[in-house]
Fold this sequence. Notes:
- The complex is a heterodimer.
- Helix content of chain A is 77%, strand content 0%.
- Chain A is built from 14 helices and no strands.
- Chain B has helices at 46-53, 76-82, 98-103, 118-130, 146-159, 176-193, 204-210, 228-231, 234-241, 276-284, 299-307, 322-333, 352-361, 370-379, and strands spanning 8-15, 23-30, 35-39, 61-66, 69-70, 83-86, 164-168, 196-200, 213-218, 221-226, 248-249, 254-255, 266-269, 289-295, 310-314, 337-340, 366-367.
- Chain B is elongated.
Amino acid sequence: MAADKHIGPEGTQAGCHRRGARARRVACVDIALAVALAALLLASLSIGTVATSPAEVVRILAEGPSGATANQVIWQIRLPRALEALLLGGALSMSGLLLQTFFDNPIADPFVLGISSGARLAVAALIIAVLGGTQVLSPAMSVGAALAGSLASMLVVLAIARRVRTRSMLIIAGVMVGYICSAATNFLVAFADDQSIVNLENWSQGSFSGAAWPDVAAIAVAVVATSAAVFALSKPLGAYQLGEDFARSVGIDVRRLRLAIVLASSVLTAAVTAFAGPVSFVGIAAPHLARLACGTSRPLLAIPACFLTGAVFCCGCDLIARTLFSPVELAVSSVTAVFGAPVVIALMLRRRGYR
Amino acid sequence: MSGDAPVLALRGLAVGHGARALVSNIDLEIAPGELVALIGPNGSGKTTILRTVAGQLAPLSGSIELAGRDLAGMPPHERARSLASLFTTRPRTDLITARDVVDAGRYPFTGRLGTLQPDDEARVRDAMEATGTWALRNRDFAHMSDGQRQRALIARALVQEPRVLLLDEPTSYLDIRSQVEMLALLRRHARARRVAVVATLHDIGLALRAADRLACIRDGRMCAVGAPGEVLTRADTAELYGIDGSLFNPAFGSVELPRVTGDPRVFVIAGAGTGADTMRALQRAAVPFAAGVLAEHDVDAEIARSLAVETVCYADFTSAADGDLARARAILNRCEAVIATPPAFPGTAGRNAELVDHARTQGIPVYASASAYLAARSEAPSDPTV
């Protein structure tokens, strides 16, 4: 390699060319995802027991909420639900991306690591033990409880992660934490009074049904703010991806960054679990599909696509859950598992080095 | 080395992972443009010193000054603009190109989102060309060989444009050509950009060639600092690593495998480097041997001093005296074979011809190489008496 000290303009351009090509590819992916998302939203608003044509949906959206039945169906039932699925899908994907970066583990996500189960346990405990059968659960309360639960199980997983050396051991430990939390939740349910159980069942079907505007508003604030914060962290996240040693050597306060990752992923997980219960595999599948589509895992480029992929994934799965056996509605988690689990298996097969 | 103020100064530094110091009382000043190698046995604390200077471990006592400022009070992002480090832990990446990795070295100089400016791009290209990784720039880092990755990581440390560069085993994973090129590059870089380089090196041969000064770490202290020739004497190297001093050759910076002891069974008549292969082959075959008569600092004499049970030498630039020849004959008479590696014995080596004649008159077989001797020995019926 002869060291060519003179960097001509053509050299720099050739260097930029490839970079430009990658930026264009990522932009194309983002646009395609946004188009797919818009199409899915329109489909979600059109399809249902009261069929509405897409043109009609657009007209109703344009005229704003009113008292007409079709208008009520779109504005009060389908739109909040679709937006909730969109936001929560994005949140799950971001949370998965953060946890994968944090643990340097490609199949980490809040569901696998037991963090969503912890959040669910906390919300169940709140409904049964504190509220009893009389009080109603407010969105802020359920998010708060879910956040406390996800942080608590995150701490347990972190304590385990300090001791285990292999990546698969961490996952096994997380799955165990998840089982323990689920068992504790079931235990609580067994001793709960009937009204609490009704409350609990309404809440934790693992679905987006029953979404209401106050919920959507709470979710939007939590998810949009946290995702923006994560995007702003893409520079240190990119350095952290290259190893802790390196991150420190370029002046990153690694402890603060790790704290920020833990908080952000817990808030995102809590937002999802507080309203939709534990949703499986989106957090693993969506970030990976996004990175593969973009051809890069640089956070700056991959984060927007990750959010969009999660949103598309969840909107699509919710649409399927709602319509496949209509009027019977499936739990969204079972649909995400059908599409998400094969991605995880493919990932483990692709990386023969996974241990 | 020069009159410059030191860019890095360690004063009474003690380092360690817990409360107990692994190495203490380290005093070292490094000038801009100087390359200092830390050498010493495994576990002596070389890497711990680097980690402490890099700010990854807190000093247990003492201080570190970077360009006259105490490192302890320096904010990390400011330190990152003057000090780059590379350790041996390798990142596991996925869908990250070699250039992404090198780009990351510009971290302390880029804006909020870390986007590179044309000026940054040019520096990245410079460093990748210098390390021979520009052609690999769009390859996935995870799919590169260990050596290619190491070169990309060194490029990353270079684009950080530090005043002090800390490298833990920079030549690990590299083939010999890359090792030599990398050290030559680091030397050039240090000199041209006035960068102080501190590297740990296991290969003392490379250390004594590449470093301006060596710092030896052993038994919890920095036991010697100085020019390679002063520090890596036979005795000091033997003590530093706990090896038999005669195995180390300061002129070459190389180490031979342990000598085969016992009564010599073969007498090697060598000279001018013709005997190197033969002596090493005998060592591998576990045959104790003697060598002679050699000019004291003939290449073969250097190797014989490490490998032969006995070596008969004469003063450089003279020829063997009668006494030397008598000693050689006495040893030779006890041997089962003679291996004479030079095709002829011109000039000052002439008296070796007398030794060959002596062997023939004694009926001792004379071979031209170790392989001929070993082949003949394996054909002959084994004779337990020799």
